[in-house]
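hey can u check if this looks right to u? its 98 residues, i copy pasted from the old doc so theres a chance i mangled smth
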Amino acid sequence: MLYAFVADYNPNTSEAQRDAALVRRATWKPNAGATIKSEHWSFGNSPLIYTVFEADDPKALWQMLADWSDVLDVRIFPVITAEFGLANGQEIFSKRAR
């Protein structure tokens, strides 16, 4: 399943902690059970980080929260691809109660 990892720096994160987080990200890899599908950084706008992971084990996502919660305010959401939505959306929405 795909998940969006969306993050900003925690409000009390110092400049030194931010610099250290960038260095840490250069070598950080998600643990077994999660694969980065895409990662995007904004130009200083909020949210700062948008990453899509594929994971079948929720422990992999929980570990990511633990890995980054010291400097980042992280939100994780289940997502689908646009292709999946376009291919299946009409069927799904035609079955909703009205």
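DSSP finds three helices and four strands in the chain.
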